[in-house]
Amino acid sequence: MLNFARHRRLRHTANLRAMVRETRLHKEDLIYPIFVVEGENQKNPVQSMPGVFQVSLDLLNEEIEEVVKLGIKSVILFGIPHEKDEVGSGAYHDHGIVQRAIAQIKQQHSDLVVIADTCLCEYTDHGHCGVVENGQIVNDASLKLLAKTAVSQAKAGADIIAPSNMMDGFVAAIREALDEEGFVHIPIMSYAVKYASAFYGPFREAAESTPKFGDRKTYQMDPANRLEALREAEADVEQGCDFLIVKPALSYLDIVRDVKNHFNLPVVAYNVSGEYSMIKAAAENGWIDEKGTVLEMLTSMKRAGADLIITYHAKDVARWLDEQSDY
């Protein structure tokens, strides 16, 4: 008789497969991004991101109620102000759009984890993530404004500060500012590894943050680089961050694994807008099964080492997880 391994024995039934499943998705893994906009009665569809909207504060409660009822435990906020200027002053105004959204959410659902994206690009008239002088993004002057932004978000009630600007020393500057203002308990979820990716296009429509000149390659990472990701993450760990984000996720699963292997902090994969939009477009054309593809994609991020996933699919995934136990 032939002697060989029979791996299919553990795949014979659904319950057997469930018993030996190595990687599982949970609702607690999901972080849902929300775009908040000035004005009233605004629920503006993002054309390149079907199912995603810019939502005004008067409609925000309805959005949050849905998130909470679905069992999602965390949201991350991005703001679109009425007015922009060269230094992004709306980002650190105590009554800015994100600050008001944070306070409103925490009043409605104090136990929902509210993460504040900390950057200037949505608030600057040039669309860059820092101060611009003579056509150059100036690092250290930008740090002061980013630190002010983080403090204002913490004052509004943010549970986590998530700086996404990729300026050198941004974690150190924000940590020092938070501590000096008495926010020693507020963790920093650093966009430690953020590539200058072509997958961000739809987000820039949603956040109205497309640069008016040049690109972001002088501060975001070259997609060809791997070891640089570890240097970036190591610097942020040394400066006091509490989470490490890898962005984008799908084309960078090797980086997610590298970061997980090297650092003993929670790793967050950002399933970015371009990844979302490709799935949506293919599903709308009937080329793929949306549910199966999304669940497989997010499971691959967990398998690569992500502890948490920022994803625009979060609400759909929460519904699907209620329907089945396969994931």
Protein model, in words:
The protein has 327 residues and is of the alpha/beta class. It has a single domain, classed as TIM Barrel, CATH 3.20.20.70. Helix content is 39%, strand content 18%. The chain is built from 11 helices and 12 strands. Strands 1, 2, 3, 4, 5, 8, 9, 10, 11 and 12 form a 10-stranded mixed sheet that branches. It has a two-stranded antiparallel ribbon with strand order 6-7. A hairpin with a 2-residue loop joins strand 6 (131-133) and strand 7 (136-138). It starts with 13 loop residues before the first helix and ends with a helix. Pathway: Porphyrin-containing compound metabolism; protoporphyrin-IX biosynthesis; coproporphyrinogen-III from 5-aminolevulinate: step 1/4. GO terms for molecular function: porphobilinogen synthase activity; zinc ion binding. Its cofactor is Zn(2+). This is Delta-aminolevulinic acid dehydratase. InterPro entries: ALAD, ALAD_AS, Aldolase_TIM.
Query: Could you name the CATH homologous superfamily?
Result: Aldolase class I
CATH domain class name: Alpha Beta
Q: Major sheet, described briefly? A: 10 strands, mixed
Number of domains: 1
Compressed to H and E, one letter per element, the order equals HEEEHEHEEEHEHEHHEHEHHEH
What spatial form do the alpha-carbon principal axes imply?
Answer: globular
The count of DSSP E runs of length 2 or more, i.e. the number of strands, is: 12
Query: Count of DSSP helices?
Result: 11
Question: Can you tell me the CATH architecture?
Answer: Alpha-Beta Barrel
Strand content: 15-25%
Distance between the ends: 37 Å
- What name does the CATH topology carry? TIM Barrel
What structural category characterises the helix and strand content? alpha/beta
Rg computed from alpha carbons, rounded to a whole number of angstroms: 20 Å
Helix percent band = 25-40%
Average the pLDDT over all residues and give the rounded result. 94
